[in-house]
Design goal:
169 residues; alpha/beta; Nucleotidyltransferase, domain 5; five-stranded mixed sheet
Amino acid sequence: MRVLGIDPGSETLGWGVVEGSGLKYSLVDYGTIKSSPREKFSKRLLKIHNGVQELIEKYQPDALSVEEAFYAVNVNVALKLGQVRGVVLVLGEKAGLEIGEYAPRLIKQTVVGYGNAEKHQVQEMVRLLLRMKTVPQPHDAADALAIAICHFHHAGIQNKINQAKLKLR
């Protein structure tokens, strides 16, 4: 299975591609899609749309793993993040990808073992889990890789639950 992890952001969107099966996975590639805060927000959304669409076409993932929205102090930030997530989720649905959405605390708990882990702790654990020589930079890309890793850990469990529910019917 190949998973495209997305850490949504309207100025810096992190992405990471991880492939494998079960709890054995390896790095394919990672990076960011950057937008200028001076651009109109609609132009930034278009840039994100086009960038994520190119990633889906280039890497042909089986699944899309996205960080869920979190509660932001600034309502405008939360609204913009929701719009970015919407663009990404629609692209995943349009491509027919399996979609997983994970809370930030669950991602940190899964990758680091502590739901309140700091950015540098997530980066270091991603480096170790993917056997990288250096920590992935910037942290947005490391977060995206962590989100993809989280999908490997939780998607299999969810599939087993869904199969068990089908058998009960």
